Amino acid sequence: MDVARKLAVIGAGLMGSGIAQVSAQAGWDVVLRDVTDEALARGRAGIEASYEKFVAKGKLDAADAQAALARITTTTDLDAAGDADVVVEAVFEKIEIKQEIFRTLDGLVKDSTVLASNTSAIPITKIAAATGRPERVVGTHFFSPVPMMGLCELVRGHKTSDETLAAAREFAESTGKTCIVVNRDVAGFVTTRLISALVVEAAKLYESGVATAEDIDVACKLGFGHAMGPLATADLTGVDILLHATENIYTESQDEKFAPPELMRRMVDAGDLGRKSGQGFYSY
């Protein structure tokens, strides 16, 4: 099967704009959609700045960066996704929002379109149930920052077809990503379950005074060869994002190891969200 070349990305935040960036660089014509012009302007500015960094470091030719940027159009109109071959949804991790988007897309796109979600924790089957084509819905979980991270987690919903999974793999691999496949649609999939369990236990150790945040992270880096410790990872991802993901997994699984500690809830209440707020488990 030839790789399709028209992509719609729904959501121009950090993840959506990153997916748009790597796809345009790989030759896809991309329409990036968000609800406000301000969000689209921020997303596009982030893409431009990222391309400039790659050019400055000699990792991307200036002409190729300009050509990639020219392949990205922005819009507030969801109808613009109508002729896309692949649609990737990358909005906030709330199932009601995602289901509403997929319900609308179902009435807009071609029968052959792959409908993908970038969710990191919500079961694909629940998102697909909002459509009349659950066999065409799949998870494509990219990692942040998308231009730097080499992984895409493909998630098969209860009714996802082999053809849809193959098309999603073809899309993700065309952007330079290595794929793993989650064959059973459990909340949190593989990667979010692993990092959530590690972050929850690390936060509990820190909360109860067993060790400092620095020492817990050093243990994981030097003892296990991790590039970054779990608490620094939480700060990078966003403590609120990880709290929300662990709550989703806990709600679905009722497995106590995913029950987030009170400390994480209080940090989010206080606005200590990590790097983006200047304070999390560390100060920035």
From TrEMBL:
PROSITE patterns registered for this protein in UniProt: 3HCDH
Matching InterPro entries: 3-OHacyl-CoA_DH (IPR022694), 3-OHacyl-CoA_DH_CS (IPR006180), 3-OHacyl-CoA_DH_NAD-bd (IPR006176), 3HC_DH_C (IPR006108), 6-PGluconate_DH-like_C_sf (IPR008927), 6PGD_dom2 (IPR013328), NAD(P)-bd_dom_sf (IPR036291)
Entry keyword annotation includes Oxidoreductase: yes
Record-annotated 3-hydroxyacyl-CoA dehydrogenase NAD binding domain positions: 6-185
Pathway(s) served: Lipid metabolism; butanoate metabolism
Keywords annotated in UniProt: Oxidoreductase
One Pfam family per UniProt: 3HCDH_N
Organism for this UniProt entry: Streptomyces sodiiphilus
Species lineage: Bacteria, Bacillati, Actinomycetota, Actinomycetes, Kitasatosporales
Domain 3-hydroxyacyl-CoA dehydrogenase C-terminal: 188-284
Designated name of the protein: 3-hydroxyacyl-CoA dehydrogenase family protein
Sequence similarity: Belongs to the 3-hydroxyacyl-CoA dehydrogenase family.
